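Work Package 4 report. The design task specified in the project plan requires that, given a folded chain encoded as structure tokens, an amino acid be chosen for each position. We show below one input record used in the internal validation round.
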């Protein structure tokens, strides 16, 4: 593992050198992320030398459980922390593509924990096919956009259903934030 860690440290240093030469010499101002996905998480835990300005993006286990949350030292990094979350997954040991198999309650729990533990810089959702995951995508993006507002909402699915546009009245009618929301009886 030491050889792999050393190699990855060199790769990261080389990438930063290339960015400084070709994009901006002020490397700390360039957005950069590191996602310790699968086998790379073990290398990170073994003491990878990651620059402080790089955003740590914590992945889930492909089934909705975030593998690691930032600790106190990681929360103090200038690059901050984020999340890479699978609402859909293609790969071993089991793919879930055409159905949204991650329960909304698990998404809400894990993303609330991530937010509360400081992973707020970047949230990425791997959504795959959009239509089967529409409610979960809306849940994820609602939390990402305004966590405190999300927490004030009494029932997410109810507001999702009443926030759909009523095509009989025009594209904007019934959308969230408008004064004429479509009632569930109109669907």
């Amino acid at each position: 593992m030491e050889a792999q860690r050393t190699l990855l440290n060199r790769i990261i240093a080389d990438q930063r050198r290339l960015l400084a030469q070709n994009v901006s010499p002020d490397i700390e101002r360039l957005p950069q992320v590191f996602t310790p996905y699968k086998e790379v998480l073990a290398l990170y835990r073994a003491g990878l030398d990651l620059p402080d300005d790089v955003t740590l993006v914590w992945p889930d286990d492909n089934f909705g459980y975030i593998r690691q949350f930032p600790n106190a030292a990681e929360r103090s990094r200038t690059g901050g922390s984020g999340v890479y979350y699978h609402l859909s997954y293609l790969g071993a040991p089991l793919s879930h593509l055409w159905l949204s198999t991650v329960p909304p309650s698990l998404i809400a729990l894990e993303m609330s924990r991530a937010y509360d533990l400081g992973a707020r810089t970047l949230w990425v959702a791997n959504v795959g096919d959009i239509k089967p995951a529409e409610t979960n995508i809306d849940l994820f993006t609602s939390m990402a956009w305004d966590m405190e507002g999300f927490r004030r909402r009494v029932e997410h699915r109810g507001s999702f259903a009443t926030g759909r546009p009523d095509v009989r009245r025009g594209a904007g009618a019934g959308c969230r934030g408008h004064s004429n929301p479509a009632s569930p009886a109109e669907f």
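The chain has seven helices and four strands. Validation will be extended to a larger panel in the next phase.
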